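Quick illustration, no need to memorize.
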Amino acid sequence: MSDKVTVVIVRDVNQRDVDRIQAINPARIEVVPLWKNLRERTAKYFPESHISRFERAAEPPAPVSEKEVERALREAQIAFCGAVHPSDLKSTMPNVRWAHFSMAGLSSIQHSGFWESNIVATTSRGYAGARAIAEMAVFGAMSIAKGFHIAVRQT
């Protein structure tokens, strides 16, 4: 087994983010962004409205060749995924040991091969959307304190 660690990214990211991961240790880490290549395959499992909700990259990396996709998936030890990804992804990654999901919870991966596997799965809980969650908590508290729920019922 090679000393090189292959990380595949299966979510919409900017080239800047790919470069930041690669810069950690360019001699040991290979980062392969696969979102553009796997988007069509993802559409077999998720509706377009759901997929497009998670596309935000202003400068997405260019797609790689199909040969490169197959090689990267076969050699990858790490998968960095978003909420939407091909459900059969795990079956194409025989060497994957860790899958990180950029959302806060893992319930959305119940449909995928990662769910009942021996792969270490982590999330961005406590990081993803923290400001939005805090704003909603303050909104909820203020709504209750000001009786907004009563006003809505009386409308």
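The chain is about 35% helix and 15% strand.
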